[in-house]
Write a structure and sequence with these properties.
Layout lengths: L11 E10 L22 H15 L5 E6 L7 H7 L5 H18 L8 E10 L4 E9 L2 E8 L4 E9 L8 E8 L12 E7 L12 H7 L2 E2 L4 H18 L4 H16 L4 E2 L1 H8 L2 H13 L7 E2 L6 H5 L2 E4 L5 E4 L4 H4 E4 L8 E4 L8
Antiparallel strand pairs: 1-3, 2-8, 2-9, 3-4, 4-7, 5-6, 7-8, 10-11, 12-13, 14-15
Helix pairs in contact: 2-3, 3-4, 5-6, 7-8
Organism: Serratia aquatilis
Protein name: Nucleoid-associated protein
Length: 357
């Protein structure tokens, strides 16, 4: 079943608290976090700006993705955060203090700098779903202007946070999508990560200390990453299979067609049954299991590989010769013919040579 889109529009903040995360000392010792005992009460313009910053960050598809909740034990981020979705203020403060201490411990083995941990509760989307957001923000230095009737002065500000141009912050976001009286169930929640280090095609650069150690979440099981893994690993299997060149071309085209189709899910079992010759079906399933790809069907999201699906096919030969073919036209425009000489490949290309670049 396809996972529905999640909207971050209409985000409303109800509570905010900030704790200071301090860097390691010069002799590499851990410095305890500086903890707050009160929530912050913003003026409306400041609250509007903060809500806008978070909405823009989480809605930025090139730097954010849905996560899988990996850890759900009693002291995990999931359990702590979900316990304050509907809590009183004192519980909210106490639990966020624990989160600040967990973040300090989580980043101790990394080279991560200090900064601010802001924990925010509120509601989001058309259904006003309750959420908790944990923001790790690094500070910047800057200036602001003060204007009088006689002079414009510039004031130096030592620590700025969440400015429009600032890139150095990470957000862990947990939303309760199904209300339940049976406790904190992982399946009733959705989790998201924003990290400026990620790009639309690369998720491995995201700071592991934050999403894995602190949030207890996994990138590998997100729909976008799984679709990317399905594409890349299936391509690898086809390229190394004992097949003639024509058969490989057909399978590559089948893979691309599968991912461009309107199907909401992808499955190694379905791809094997529908496209692979009998003697390769089990080998493909074994290969994909070794890559740790799920054996069950997963939601398809081609965002990370969209450009590759539209890109022209490139045939590269051992002699460093390559031929470029329009997408979806491989079988119509190029044919491989048998050759008795393993050092040569015979190609039959529809069309006449038009130009040489």
């Amino acid at each position: 079943m396809s996972i529905s889109a999640f909207s971050f529009e209409g985000l409303m903040i109800e509570r905010v608290i900030a704790h200071k995360i301090l860097p390691k000392t010069a002799d590499k010792q851990m410095t305890p976090a500086k903890l707050s005992n009160k929530v912050i009460h913003f003026k409306q313009d400041a609250m509007d700006t903060l809500q806008l910053r978070i909405t823009e960050a989480l809605a930025n598809k090139s730097h954010g993705l849905e996560m899988s909740i990996r850890d759900s034990d009693a002291d995990s981020f999931f359990s702590l955060a979900s316990s304050i979705l509907h809590s009183d203020e004192q519980t909210f403060i106490a639990v966020t203090q624990r989160l600040a201490n967990k973040l300090t411990l989580s980043q101790f083995s990394s080279n991560a700098p200090g900064g601010l941990l802001a924990v925010i509760s509120g509601r989001v989307g058309d259904d006003a779903l309750p959420f908790i957001a944990a923001i790790k923000a690094e500070t910047q230095n800057g200036f602001r202007t003060n204007e009088t009737s006689e002079q414009i002065t510039i004031e130096y500000i030592a620590e700025l946070l969440l400015t429009p141009s600032q890139r150095f912050y990470k957000i862990g976001f947990l939303a309760q999508v199904v209300s339940s009286s049976t406790g904190q169930l992982v399946e009733n929640h959705r989790a998201f990560l924003f990290d400026h280090l990620m790009s639309s095609t690369e998720s491995s650069k995201a700071a592991g200390y934050f999403y894995s150690t602190f949030l207890g979440m996994s990138i590998e099981k997100s729909s976008k990453k799984l679709t990317q893994d399905f594409f890349e690993n299936t391509k690898k299997f086809i390229n190394t299979a004992l097949l003639d060149d024509d058969s490989k071309l057909e399978l590559h085209e089948a893979l691309r067609s599968e991912l461009r189709s309107k199907k909401a899910i992808i499955s190694t079992s379905d791809f094997s049954k529908e496209h692979l010759p009998e003697d390769l079906k089990d080998k493909y399933l074994d290969f994909m299991r070794l890559t740790k790809f799920p054996q069950h069907a997963v939601s398809k999201d081609i965002e990370y590989i969209q450009a590759k699906l539209k890109r022209r096919n490139k045939l590269v030969f051992s002699s460093d010769v390559w031929v470029s073919v329009p997408p979806d036209k491989m079988k119509d425009l190029v044919q491989f013919e048998e050759s008795d000489d393993n050092n040569f490949t015979i190609l039959k290309i529809k069309g006449k040579l038009k130009s040489q670049e």
